[in-house]
Specification:
It is a single chain. By secondary structure, the chain is α/β, with parallel strands linked by helices. The chain is built from 29 helices and 31 strands. The strands form 6 sheets. It has an 8-stranded mixed beta sheet, with helices on both faces. An 8-stranded mixed beta sheet has the order 21-20-19-18-22-23-24-25. Strands 28-27-26-29-30-31 form a 6-stranded parallel beta sheet, sandwiched between helices. Helix 3 runs antiparallel to helix 4. The radius of gyration is 32 Å and the shape is globular.
């Protein structure tokens, strides 16, 4: 493809993502697969967050470049975003293997209308031992579909709360899926009117082929609904009913009920109602029967499985006066959690629903919000609940909706909203719908951050959960059109952050570790990446590392304390521009009983805070850039501003060989080198054609931008087909992307390196086009590819360690000289196509060459 053909008018920031996708499609149609990869890959790295389509474009380009593993990974990401995307499922079935391939085949069999695709899916499933399959489609008035099997003819049953019907499904020898000895039949039947969900099941004598929960197809008739018991008089403690629906998982169910029984014993006036929703596990039925016989629980048993919504609504219909708590059967309730949850709700005005903090509670998750954090041990849960009670006493934070794992509902709210909606297929987001109806009725949905309840997470429908959630989310967003905006605003504001931070401060002061953590101070995103890498090195030696990251927020200077492994703390951010903030930070570090304090980027740490910490703690220095030096030149020595800091340090440390060479040659210091070099990966495949330079951009600085622009100009004059791939972001990506020989990849990580090198066909790497970053994981990951590299040489390499394919740049070299050196080095690429070399030489000498 010529330079003119590659030129795209990337001028609109708002439509840049659209332009990238369109251009990627055009490049695929033109069979310029490297260009297609470059465009689609960038689309997958920028905002707005890419959908399945963008990842599929990237996958298609990778597959055409014979990078199958990377292509399959992109398809997997597309399926994660859109589990029902048939194009992604077809690609996974064709390219993938193992469980993802089988899941894709099941998805195609259940939903694809193309008979050939379904036949291929059925054949693959049968080859892997699945001899039966079914598709079920339903509307309000009917249900239809088909089933394939081997052996005896199956039966189809349709059950609801008060009735059940069964029909035989005889094989149809002319059915389009009756192939290779496999039997098949289609079915179509009318659905009886029902205000509750229905269960459709297709089964042979020895196993169930399909079991589908169908939502109600009639609205409930409330005209003859039983009257609620009268509310309690003012001053009386209302009764509390804990409702636990149970279906599978004996261990989780037992642990949940036992914890709830302990909590109920500490909560006067509370009882437990367990709904056995036709559990298929005899051990669960035995456990529930014993507990009911001992009068420890009230047991409701469904003759047919009604699903989560049906089970909850049955229990709600049979509760007396007072509030209720909907509790998932995979939760663990601390001893005093229910008592304090009820007390907090009853002392807060206009509450309709309340949700505690949890390790796995979406908005209310701790320590990382909106993530499934690991379930703490029972002892840790008790401690978290106790500390939350002291850290956040008396607080109630409004949230867009409550979370159903542990949802407290006041009687006033229940009287107004009545019950869960059966419009949400197979029991996801019905809790959100209930809470939004409560908000419309004038009630508040709040988080009570003084209570902590453990939640293991979904154990049902694991392979289908995201598909179900997305399907039900579309229903929710259609019904409540402001909901998505309110959620986005809540996530940006994060009003629960201070509550999480308060709990984390309590945890830090309560830690009883033998050896305190090792704390690394840093002040930039680059320094943070290096500090996190340092924590990984410490973890390899069974030591815990914490990062204190300083950043500016207007006039405030925030110090965030972060555990890079996702444990607490994650939310502590102290304003160290104030004496109070500095004292709180100092107290936190004193309470931690530090194993060591390591200081990186002291120039980015507020002076008063740095002085206070270095006076109180012995410390090490971690060299991550050239700021310690007077000048970036051999023999320069330590800058006077940092001489005292260096002299008082216990030791000076670096990660990697380049940092060690800089410390010795420039600073005149013998630094302790940390960590082993990265393992050597398989070298990337050789690429023929013009030079393709990968330039690492870490700083998004003016110097980097000017370097890329000038190199682009001179490279275009030397060889119009040579290209620059910027690995990172710049001050103005779109401005550079308008150049036909420049692609800006966007934010990248270590795990992306191999795919980027091979997808872009990069032949050489330029690492130092700005301030060097010693020990940055991306630098070492790129070095480990073994590609020829241009980088600053701080001291001459010993014999045998230097490669003649590398370009050694002198420290302090100005940008023009560096660009000229890189350009000459790129022109020497042994993979440069001979015709290109001959064409360039003709231009240079102005004569005809043979």
């Amino acid at each position: 493809m010529t330079a003119d053909a590659r030129r795209i008018a990337f001028t609109s920031k708002t439509l840049h993502h659209v332009d990238l996708e369109r251009a990627a499609v055009g490049a695929l149609e033109a069979r310029d697969f490297r260009r297609a990869f470059a465009l689609a890959d960038r689309r997958c790295r920028i905002l707005p967050h890419p959908g399945a389509r963008a990842h599929l474009l990237r996958a298609e380009a990778l597959f055409r470049l014979d990078l199958r593993d990377a292509a399959v990974a992109s398809v997997a990401r597309a399926l994660e975003l859109e589990p029902d995307d048939l194009v992604a499922a077809r690609r996974m079935m064709a390219w993938g293997d193992g469980l993802p391939q089988l899941e894709a085949a099941r998805s195609i069999a259940r939903r694809d209308d193309d008979a050939d695709s379904v036949r291929s899916a059925l054949l693959l499933l049968e080859q892997n031992g699945q001899h039966s399959c079914a598709r079920v489609d339903f509307l309000d008035e009917e249900v239809k579909g088909w089933v394939t099997w081997r052996g005896d003819d199956p039966q189809l049953s349709l059950a609801q709360a008060d009735q059940s019907s069964t029909i035989q499904l005889p094989a149809d020898p002319r059915h389009r899926f009756a192939l290779n000895g496999r039997r098949a039949a289609s079915f179509r039947l009318m659905r009886p009117a029902s205000a509750t969900s229905q269960r459709l099941e297709i089964a042979q004598a020895d196993h169930v082929i399909a079991s589908i929960q169908l939502p109600a197809n009639r609205a409930p008739d409330r005209r003859n609904a039983p009257q609620r018991p009268p509310r309690t008089r003012n001053g009386e403690t209302p009764p509390l009913t804990i409702i636990i629906p149970v279906y599978r998982d004996l261990a989780a169910t037992r642990a949940c009920i036992e914890s709830a029984l302990t909590a109920v014993a500490c909560t006067p006036g509370s009882t437990i109602v367990v709904v056995d929703d036709a559990s298929p596990e005899p051990a669960i039925k035995h456990l529930l029967g014993e507990l009911a016989a001992e009068l420890r629980i009230r047991l409701l048993t469904n003759a047919h499985n009604l699903g989560f919504v049906g089970a909850i609504n049955r229990a709600l219909g049979e509760t007396g006066a007072g509030d209720v708590v909907l509790l998932n059967s995979d939760t663990i309730v601390p001893k005093y959690a229910l008592q304090r949850l009820r007390s907090a709700v009853r002392s807060t005005l206009r509450v309709g629903t309340a949700t505690p903090l949890s390790n796995n509670g979406e908005y209310t998750s701790f320590p990382v919000p909106n993530r499934s954090n690991p379930l703490p041990s029972p002892g840790e849960l008790e401690l978290l609940d106790e500390l939350a009670g002291t850290a956040n006493s008396g607080m109630a934070i409004d949230i867009p909706n409550g979370i159903g794992f542990c949802l407290y509902i006041t009687r006033e709210c229940l009287d107004a909203v009545h019950e869960l909606s059966d419009d949400f297929y197979r029991g996801y987001l019905e809790d959100v719908d209930f809470c939004l109806r409560a908000a419309e009725a004038g009630f508040r949905n709040v988080c009570i951050p003084s209570v902590f309840v453990g939640h293991e997470g979904s154990r049902s429908f694991l392979g289908e959960k995201r598909s179900l959630v997305l399907r039900n989310l579309r229903v929710l967003e259609h019904r409540y059109q402001r909901y998505a905006t309110e959620c986005a605003a809540f996530l940006v504001a994060d009003p629960l952050r201070d509550c999480r931070a308060a709990l984390e401060l309590k945890l830090l002061s309560n830690e009883q570790r033998g050896d305190g953590p090792h704390v690394i101070l840093c002040g930039s995103s680059i320094g943070r990446e290096i500090a996190v890498r340092r924590c990984r090195q410490l973890a390899a030696d069974d030591k815990r590392g914490l990062v204190v990251h300083f950043r500016a927020e207007g006039e405030r200077r925030m110090a965030a304390i972060i555990d890079p492994d996702g444990e607490a703390p994650q939310s502590i951010a102290l304003d160290v521009a104030t004496p109070e903030g500095r004292e709180t930070l100092l107290k936190c570090l004193v309470d931690l009983r530090l194993g060591s304090l390591e200081i990186a980027e002291p120039n980015r740490i507020p002076g008063a805070c740095l002085a206070q910490l270095t006076q109180h703690f012995a410390y090490d220095l971690l060299v991550t850039d050239t700021r310690f030096a007077m000048h970036a030149a051999a023999g320069s020595g330590v800058h006077p501003d940092w001489a005292g800091l260096v002299e008082r340090a216990r030791r000076v440390m670096v990660i990697g060989e380049n940092g060690a060479e800089f410390s010795e040659a420039v600073l005149g210091l013998q630094a302790t080198r940390l960590g082993a070099p990265p393992a050597q990966p398989a070298p990337p495949r050789a690429v023929s054609g013009p030079a393709r330079l990968g330039l690492l951009a870490l700083h998004a600085s003016a110097a980097e931008f000017r370097f890329v622009r000038a190199l682009s100009d001179q490279m275009a004059e030397a060889d119009e087909d040579a290209a620059i791939i910027v690995l990172g972001t710049t001050l103005d990506d779109l401005k550079l992307m308008q150049r036909p020989n420049v692609t800006v990849a966007g934010e990248i990580g270590v795990d992306d390196v191999t795919t980027l090198i091979e997808g872009h066909g990069i032949t050489k790497l330029v690492l130092d086009i700005g301030e060097p970053a010693f020990g940055h994981p991306l630098v070492d990951a790129l070095l480990a590819t073994g590609l020829p590299t241009a980088a600053i040489e701080w001291s001459p390499a010993p014999p045998g360690r230097s490669r003649n394919t590398d370009l050694k740049l002198q420290p302090g070299l100005d940008a023009d000289d560096a660009i000229a050196a890189v350009l000459d080095w790129a022109a020497e690429d042994v993979l440069l196509h001979p015709d290109r070399r001959r064409s360039r030489l003709r231009r240079e000498v102005g004569t005809r060459l043979p």
